[in-house]
Amino acid sequence: MAETVTLIFFLFTAIVILAMIAMRLRIPYPIMLVLGGLIIAFIPGLPAIHINPDLILFVFLPPLIYSSAWQTSWREFHSNLRPILLLAIGLVLATTVLVAVASHFLIGLPWSVAFVLGAIISPTDAVAASATAQSLGLPRRIVTILEGESMVNDATGLVIYKFAVAGVVTASFSLWQAGLEFALVGVGSVLLGLALAWLLTRLHHLLDEPTIEISITLLTPFAAYLLAEELHGSGVLATLAAGLYLSRHSSRFFTSGTRLPAIAVWNTLAFQLNGFVFLLIGLALRDILENLSLRQLPSLLGSVLLVSGTAIVIRLLLVFASSYLPPVLNPRVNIGEVRSRWRSTALIGWTGLRGAVSLAAALALPFTLQNGSLFPQRNLLIFLSFGVILVTLVGQGMTLTPLIRLLGLKGDDSVDNERLQAHKAATKAAIKRLDDLRDAEWVSEDFLSTLYDYYGRKLEQFDMFKLGEQADALHDHLNTNARLRHEVLDAERAAIIKLRDNNSIDDEVLRTIERELDLEEQRLSQSPTSTLT
Length: 533
Prior knowledge:
It is found in: Cell membrane. Keywords: Antiport, Cell membrane, Ion transport, Membrane, Sodium, Sodium transport, Transmembrane, Transmembrane helix, Transport. It holds the Pfam family Na_H_Exchanger. It comes from Dictyobacter halimunensis. Residues 13-404 form the Cation/H+ exchanger transmembrane domain. The protein is an all-alpha fold. It is 79% helix and 0% strand. The chain has 22 helices and no strands. It has helices at residues 2-25, 29-40, 53-70, 74-79, 81-107, 111-121, 127-135, 140-170, 175-206, 210-230, 235-253, 256-290, 296-329, 335-339, 342-350, 356-363, 378-396, 400-407, 414-437, 445-464, 471-501, 507-526. Helix 13 crosses helix 17 (378-396).
């Protein structure tokens, strides 16, 4: 027991250290984590860890998928639905089938096992890609497509994975029956997730206690997953549907006191779970590598490159075909417009990075079949899955930054424009409300005048700039104002710390005022236009 606790502590510590190294090197942290998992496989003396496969799926997948769904912009997701679904469903199915074909004929895997491998590596993980894209200021549409694809294809790939594994375990598989069940399970699971989410929105409306509400959000993905699995549905699809619905409506039932700590809790949880999966695979690889001879290694590495190359080429071909076929099939489509998007198409085609979801699926493979015999080629499947993740996440991931610069892709002002528009609308609404309350008996005339001045100055400064015409001037103005506000906040913070150190105030008072200053600082960090005032 003590050894297990020590090992878990070591893994969580390693996650933090690797993420710090990634930050210093300015690379997406999943790349460092997968390299860390590889290093762990060669550290002598570390014990092997064996986790129930069903437990891996239940512990890791629901919160990761729920977190991804929660951060999705429904408007952007809906406006890019066609390319997202093409990648998340069409590409996943194509990758599963063609990787299975290549694995069967070129590696010699049995058909059933080959389909399991195809299902494992079919979903992409856009964490590294979207992190790089956002840091370099890519167009919003590309980031939306990458993140939307990653969210939906997790569900698609894992549903296929479930059927493929069941076919191996039970030694029976019918394509038509699986297709019908896939459709029924998909629709039923989504409806179940939506129904659960609707009930939870009613519950959240009755509550106003951050600790309880955040606890409910932590339980929600597991509740959706368990309920769907117990009803022989897809826990992944139910969790995804629940996350999308609750995210869409959360602004109406969460207070700021709940929303701020909830975001912090979920960011930390997703980060740790992602890291834990990457390092767990390193411990699993120890047993696999011990069972391999040096003579097998060149052949295995060749198999990794074969499967990785198949997945990469399939993605590139399908992504480019989806952009260039419409003018051929429909003459009314603007050919020039399609051709002008080749840079975006090339980047999206290259960002087929595999990550934590594929790792969790590989580790979750059962040890035995229904008849009691060992799951065929389980160690080989895990090794190949990790190899594909290493090639795509590290190999392709490290090339994203130079590729983006080479293609000359730049961000747009759409987010800044919408943020400025929203601030102006909110400011006008505040001024209108002040007009409505002017004659109310409880309103202080002095404070009313102060608020009028504050919002009036705010609106005047919003009108000073128009993004696109004076973007550089606006950003310089924002940066200057932000620096001044941060300097003032630092002075306030230093003053109250000095009072606490002199015992003029106690720690509870310090924490109360510190929270107010922290919230103000976060407001400055999250919304540059708030520095206009």
